[in-house]
Amino acid sequence: MNAPNDIAMKNDEVLRVELEVFKREHRDLDDAITALEATGTFDQLTLRRLKKKKLGLKDRIRIIEDRLYPDIIA
């Protein structure tokens, strides 16, 4: 997936909706990871995959936020 080019072709409203969806997914993954760790008996591979997916979402969120809210030095 070529995220920067994909994002460049979308309008701001679509990006705002995607941003909210990605933030919700990120929170859900965080809750799932916390619940999995709380059980004490969890599969390390599953945990690692969830964390990797969460990091991927964090990167997508950052890219979209940079596009929507550029850091302009005044």
Short description:
The chain is mainly α and 74 residues long. It has helices at residues 3-8, 12-39, 44-68.
Q: What is the end-to-end distance?
A: 34 Å
Instruction: Sketch the topology as an H/E string, one letter per element.
Output: HHH
Helix content: over 70%
Class based on secondary structure composition and strand pairing:
mainly alpha
Mean pLDDT figure: 89
- Rg: 15 Å
How does the overall form come out from the CA principal axes? elongated
Strand count, sense and barrel status of the largest sheet are: none
Task: Give your account of this protein's structure.
The structure is a single chain. With 74 residues, this protein is mainly alpha-helical. Helix content is 80%, strand content 0%. It is built from 3 helices and no strands. It has helices spanning 3-8, 12-39, 44-68. Helix 2 runs antiparallel to helix 3. It is elongated. The termini are far apart. The mean pLDDT is 89.
Keywords:
single chain; about 70 residues; mainly alpha; 3 helices
List the helices and strands and how they pair.
Layout: H1 3-8, H2 12-39, H3 44-68
Helix pairs in contact: 2-3
